Amino acid sequence: MLTRRQFTIAAGAASLATTPRAWSASGLKGGTLTLGYQKTGIPLVARQLKVFEKRFEPLGIRIEWAEFTSGLNLLQAMDTGDVAFGNAGNVGCIFLQASGGRVAYVAAQPATPRSEGILVKEDSPVRTIADLKGKRIGYAKGSSSHNLVAAALERAGLDIKSVTSIGLSAADAAFAFDGGDIDAWAIWDPYFTIAKRRSPTRVVAYQGDVLPDAASFLLANTEFAKNWPAHVNALVEGSREAGQWAKANPGEVAKAVASATGMPLDVVTEVNANAGFDVVPLSDAILDSQQRTADRLLKVGVLPKSVVVREAVWKA
């Protein structure tokens, strides 16, 4: 078990990682296994704890870490085979599958109820989802927040055309929300938590109110998963181990993320309190939810073609 001091030292070195430039078509070459991570979540914890190094080095396999600024970039690297294994959000996985991406779902991380939501100002007349009719809603089009808005409106008997959708990046939406240029803002953490701290707001709907079985996913390059099933299982089990450690040591994890990202510790602590660190099998409920998301994105016109989510599920 890594000590608190060892974990803190490792966290401070996270930003010094370099990204490898060349791998095989499955992320495994010359005894090196390439894994993708971002500066948060289970992969960051696994990297600090050297969970995978301890599992694979006795087999003569060296672990190489590649850092990414977004889940979409990580997915693209898995598709090309530059990375063997990583994690990403639900919507990015669907878009990659629609483009013929060579990435397989191998496990899930259930979304937590309060890590994303639809915000209004505290003095807004909007009290319910139905009150959003005719209002201006800012969100990143083709994102999980796009899906949240569409699903929330569905539950209220409305469709997305009943609101004025304004496509904005998180940074631009923050300015628009503060300036009153939009009536509501659908956004995920850490921006969600930061926005609630910055000014008086109300949450019209949390993700958990609308999408109870949503999840993000652990994924593998399909060729890697086909050729190395035991390695995939070891990566899933190692991720579960890192997640359990994170749940038992929230203070250390918050310090690690704050060090890696530069976000204030109190913000990271709140974000992590709303984050999920569980790794679970791909249940029917989770896959059905993912399929509904794919169907919804097709319906609102942002997904170029229909996909069958279960076609991309890894069969060990």
Give a quick summary of the entry:
By secondary structure, the chain is of the alpha/beta class.
Q: Which series of helices and strands comes N to C?
A: HEEHHEHEHEEEHEHEHEHEHHHHH
Average predicted local confidence, pLDDT? 90
Tell me the CATH superfamily of the largest domain. Periplasmic binding protein-like II
Largest sheet: 5 strands, mixed
Q: What is the number of helices?
A: 14
Strand order of the largest sheet: 8-7-9-6-10
| End-to-end Cα distance | 30 Å
Low-confidence parts, pLDDT < 50 over ≥5 residues? Answer: 1-23
Strand content: 15-25%
According to CATH, the fold-level topology of the largest domain is D-Maltodextrin-Binding Protein, domain 2
Q: What Rg is obtained from the alpha carbons, in whole angstroms?
A: 20 Å
Number of domains: 2
- The CATH architecture of the largest domain is 3-Layer(aba) Sandwich
Report the top-level CATH class of the largest domain.
Answer: Alpha Beta
Number of strands: 11
Helical residue percent? 40-55%
Would you tell me the structural class of the helices and strands? alpha/beta
What general form does the structure show? globular
